[in-house]
Amino acid sequence: MTDVKTEAEPVEAGGRRERPKVGLADRDGFLAWVMLLPSVVYIIALVGIPFLLAIAFAFSDVTTGDPSFDFVGFANFGDVFDDRVFWRSLRNTLVFTVISMLLIVVFGKILANILVADFRGKWFVRFLVLLPWTTPVALSTVSWLWFLDSIFSPVDWVLRNVGLIDANVVWLGQPGTAMASVIAVHVWRLTPLAAVIVMAGLIAIPKDLDEAARIDGAGFWRRMFEVTIPLTMPVIAVAALFGAILTFTDMTVPYVLTRGGPTHSTDVLASWAYFRGIEGGDVGQGAAIALFLFPLLLAAAVAILRAVRRLEAR
Amino acid sequence: METVEVKGLVKAFDGHLRARRGRSERVLALDGVDLAAEPGEYLVLLGPSGCGKTTLLRTIAGLEQPTEGEVLIGGHVVNGLPPRVRQIAMVFQSYALYPHKTVLDNIVFPLRAEGMERAEREKKAAWAAELLEITPLLRRKPRQLSGGERQRVALARALVRDPAVFLLDEPLSNLDAKMRATARDELKRFQERVGTTTIYVTHDQAEAMGLGDRIAVLEHGRVRQVGTPQEVYDDPADTFVATFIGSPPMNLVKRDDRLVGFRPEHLLPAENVTSERVTMPLRVERMEYLSGDRHVYGTVTGIGEETRVIARLPATVATPLAAGETHEFAVPADRFRFFDAAEGVRTAAVPIGGAS
């Protein structure tokens, strides 16, 4: 019996081994292409082509009334530079971005600490924290519009009743408060994203380190500034850069809240490009304005990639 | 030098997921532990994974709060006090060095937290680095160090504060086998020099036997036995200790309502046992030749139920043995230990047939 079995087995096994089936799913090269293709198509169609079009339009006299393409050299750029609104919106963009980014990172770090903390009812707090990010931006901005309304603002109502102000502030009607409002709404919206990014960094810190610091006698602030923050620095950098990029290119909040007003005091590059190129019809100038976003975004992208690499090296 | 004592310590963990559905499942990590470490003593907590030894250490450190019971350091109850004020130093299994700080900054971190002046803490750090021979490494980052060097940095960081107690959580388990032997020796000499009360957690019995002044054997959150390495090895309190300590473990042969235990090294071919002895026939099944010793796997009859046992024959015993043979073996009469078959605890000796 056993003899027969041992004789039969190698033949059977050999026969099976002769016809190996290698499916398409076994070929890494093929798989790589299949998996990458959708994102490659997406990037080419929605990022690459519009970007090349924008460059082409920036050197043309295309308008919505006359779509024929005529090369005009740097004429659009000259016009843009002569326009005081452009410089205003460039400055607004920088103010908007820098202040928003700082606030987003600080609040994001604080919220991240809340997200990782263990307490009763934390699922509800997590839900509240993530709400601003998950609500559609147009919807939440419209409700902010009501919040900051010149007559019916609940914010003003509260401040009036507390006795801090006598008359309504008209948040969106004055240059200073309008900018502050735009920044506040934007920070409110983007902080959850930063919080989630920083939270990922906080979770990645080995628990031992915090415990070691506690045993070494470090209090809350020392642990925060000497252990937690240095260790999450690369992640915080990523959160900051995401905040910066998403602020820099954003026009939704200023558009819905103020339409760039009053008198361009909240116009940013993106919204000004839109008003000029689409609503004003001068596609060439709009494209020229939008191109100013590019070098700064490129620098930010390089910085993000560097931060990520530092994260991996650790 | 301080005493460390725990009294009636209970630590329960809730099964989180179950608790939400109303069926809370409590896991007792510590189930009534009473233990005391004398001043300057090296106490080793030994047990299999999940026995609660690390939880006990963390409770002493103040990283966990006990559900019931008291922790006393130097005679004072420290329950509820944060780790900071307990005057303890702990070395973690992972060493938990701050990866972004240099070795020097790692070592002075506890001193800075204390608010010590710069000159003084540099002096202290230099002293600790000297003692542990890591002075050339002070400018490096932890990732540039080997496992053994990291361990010494962690020790230095623990040492600079002049703690009342050292708590060590399996500090050797990340080292390779060769390093572990040297590091064990260094640890022991180091503790003897500084003389600080030390509580050391390990699952490795060789470490426990080699390092401990006394060993506390834990299982399922209870202390099974506390004693010197010799006591724990030669006079195990129950069958758990008897089989957990010793490699290969103690042989246990069932005889009526008792278990008859004897160590493998005491089961020798009959002609090698000259003192008062109990002989038994052993059918040899398999042999292993391990670092000079012969481990003989076989079945004994005659002293109780037929049981598989292991005999460890030192190199000096040259009796020829082969698999399949039955040979007369013997155990010196004073080497038998008796346990209750149902409870597993030690009982008085009973006469065994075949004594000669």
Automatic annotation (TrEMBL), chain A:
Chief location bin: membrane
Pfam families on file: BPD_transp_1
Gene Ontology BP terms: transmembrane transport
Domain ABC transmembrane type-1 intervals: 90-306
Transmembrane segments: 30-59, 94-116, 123-147, 187-206, 227-248, 287-308
Domain of life where this protein originates: Bacteria
Membrane topology: Multi-pass membrane protein
Keywords associated with the record: Cell membrane, Membrane, Sugar transport, Transmembrane, Transmembrane helix, Transport
Record flagged with keyword Transcription: no
GO cellular component: plasma membrane
The family this protein is said to belong to: Belongs to the binding-protein-dependent transport system permease family.
Protein name: Multiple sugar transport system permease protein
Organism expressing this protein natively: Actinomadura livida
TrEMBL record, chain B:
UniProt GO molecular function: ABC-type transporter activity; ATP binding; ATP hydrolysis activity
Domain ABC transporter span(s) in chain numbering: 4-245
GO cellular component: ATP-binding cassette (ABC) transporter complex, substrate-binding subunit-containing
Highest rank taxon of the organism: Bacteria
Keyword Hydrolase: no
Keywords carried by this UniProt record: ATP-binding, Cell membrane, Membrane, Nucleotide-binding, Sugar transport, Translocase, Transport
Gene Ontology process terms (BP): carbohydrate transport
Record SUPFAM superfamilies: MOP-like, P-loop containing nucleoside triphosphate hydrolases
UniProt name for this protein: Multiple sugar transport system ATP-binding protein
UniProt organism field: Actinomadura livida
